[in-house]
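Researcher: Please predict.
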Amino acid sequence: MELLRRALEEHHEDVAAIITEAVMCNNGCNLPAPGFLQEIRALCDQYGIAFILDEVITGFRLSLGGAQTFYNVRPDISIFAKAMGSGYPISAVVGRREWMSLIAESKVIHAGTMNAGQPSVAAALATISILEREAPHARMFALGQRLMSGLRQAAADTGHRMLVQGPGPMFITAFTDRDVFCDYRDTLTADRAKLGRFVAGMHDAGIRVIGRGLWYISAVHTEAEIDQAIATAREVLAGMD
């Protein structure tokens, strides 16, 4: 943060926006340090630049209001996508009126092949309606923590150093001697070849894990499925060097 602050002091006239994720899901599922997002907000206000929050993954997974609600920060513009429509091809750019009005006034072009894709819009409206009605997030956090804890125990019992990190609805597994990933550089210490063998073993046993070690919890997952994933991971780990 100190490096960013100094850079803005020297070059803020050349900076139009700060774009960030709240949780760096694709780079270790790194959680923001306490106050980090609020400091970004303050710096953007200080220098009159836009704060853009990438919610493509965190949107509708951490809360119905996304990471910005979960972490109590208000960006100028946010980007939501796949989770909004339960996998249908859709994305949304949303933000404060003073920013979004530029599109309504045709001062900024917003064009796209799928802009009039009614099935995707219907899927998004249905998904959001169900999330509002069923409020599954507490359950998703609980299931995620159950799976994370089970994976840690399975790794420990089979003699593997495996880091399991994330908020719960999404998390990563990585084979490393580190106890935590704090930034992208930390992820470079991970044994990617070993992760590849683990992921392949899970796939062969019928459990799909994203190749980079990222896991997602869905609102329709059950405790039985979580326990099955843990048991499968234990078997795969037991057969690995």
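Model: The chain has a mean pLDDT of 93.
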